[in-house]
Amino acid sequence: MEQPLSLAQLQNTCVDLRKEIVTMIYQAQSGHPGGSLSVAEFVTACYFREMRVDPQNPRWEDRDRFILSKGHVCPAQYAALAMRGYFDRSQLATLRREGSILQGHPDMNKCPGIDISTGSLGQGLACGVGMALAAKLDGKSFRVFVALGDGECDEGEIWEACHTAAKYRLDNLVVFVDYNNLQLDGACDEVMPLGDLGQKFREFGMDVYEIDGNQMGQMVAALDLARAVRNGKPKCILGRTVKGKGVSYMENACEWHGIAPNEEQYRQAMEELDRQYVPEAETQGNAGQPGKDGAPAGGGYAGKGGAAV
Amino acid sequence: MTIREKRATREGFGQEMVALGKENPDILVLDVDIGKSCKTGEFRKQLPEQYLNVGIAEQNGAGVAAGLATCGKIPFVVTYAAFGSMRMCEMIRQEICYPRLNVKLACSHGGLTPANDGASHQCIEDMGILRTLPNMTVIMPADYTAARKLVREAASYEGPVYLRFTRDAVPVIYGEEEKFTIGKAKRLREGRDVAILANGDTLCLALEAAERLAQEGISARVLDFHTIKPLDVEAVAQCLEEIGRVITVEDHNILNGLGSAVAEVAAEQGRGILRRVGVQDQFGMSAPYERLLARNGITTEHIAELARELQKQPRR
Question: Which pTM does this prediction carry?
């Protein structure tokens, strides 16, 4: 992008993204809102600030790659791709429909901008390692961003992939863990305690940045660090997040892992999200400076054409 | 066709990979700490920049290969058939077959050949498992030369390929001039009374059986079905139509391998009598390879016996 977005602009883009997510799932009456909403800041920061991509040329060889290892939260990525112009926004209404480019889980051969098909948990990181390795082998500068769920860290393949990333010194790999502490059957602590996840990734050879993953300022700061520190170590951003973030009745509610809102719930969600825009003029500095975060409710921002049914 | 020396198909793979790697820097070997047995040593020595080893982590190996393939690399993931087809199976399905990525799975120790290692390392299920995955091509060369030629074919084919090699030295059947096409069976011997369709290490058993039958006045056609997917349906149909008596031979479970693939065609066409020689849906054990084959009736004598039995039956 020509001009980097300010922190407030990024925050507002993230509100747009959340509205698209809820709208898509409402229209499809199917999908996974909880995890899509918790990963929204990471997806927004990647697509609207961090990644070097060309929506007009989705298979550009030197592009940065994005892998949604937790593929069920693809509404978040689809919304970002549409908002960046990879395809027309009207396509979002076709989520999970027969013949749609927007499959229930991401398909690299159907949807422009998807770098690898995912959906079966635990597999995306290894693919990301392969891509980052290809960049190193060819002396290319592209980087690879992988979004992991906390629940899928139960899978052994994640840790196998960490070994490989460390061995081949893949500091062009950025792993975000969407640590909302809820998985399908309940709380992570109850289903399968993850222990000190940050320490685990550190022990597996990564630089770990532990942040509030729903604070855009912290997200941007962590991505800045991940970009700047080229010490041969893969980067892990461990983001404490809230499942269902932004929609009160979905927040921290395990039952919103994989169901769609009804009409009344949808209206309420849109109203709540509309109140989360921040005034762009009042936020000083650019998005590179952390600590200017905390989107105030009821900011009265009206400049964004939010999703509407 | 004169049978010359004996060499293992895995050696043919290892040798051809060095040549291919030198020709194309995008060709990579991805080992999972079993490279020595799978004959990637020379590649590793001569082309270290194109050599990766991710340790004993097959699932990750398949995923890393998928990622490499999205960036234009042609990775050959190298392991034993048991681990390549089963430990990696779901990763192959999700990240290689579904997106139809250009990854090659090169697996040695297929069938009962890791004989002394016992059932854990023998693999009688792999080709059947891989055959059910959409977008996958499944190949088993019959000798050293075929291994080299088919590895080369696989490298230039765009898409997922499973290549099955074996441990033991087997007779070299083919000459250097022989040409191979993926999905096209090779007719090695003409015949009119019975057709013997074989692949891999058992092809030489089929040829021996045909030789023995010829002395008894039974004329056997022998085909090498080095590719079981896509199956050369035309070649099967010809055997059914022109001969009508068919025997399949494979070092694989009789379920889901070459015999099953041929049976599917025969059943749909509603013609022919079929006998399947292969592993009798039972696990192996530590024993000499020949003994394991014998315990399953995968022998020259058994093939000949079935041919004699079929010969007495009217064509259907």
Answer: 0.94
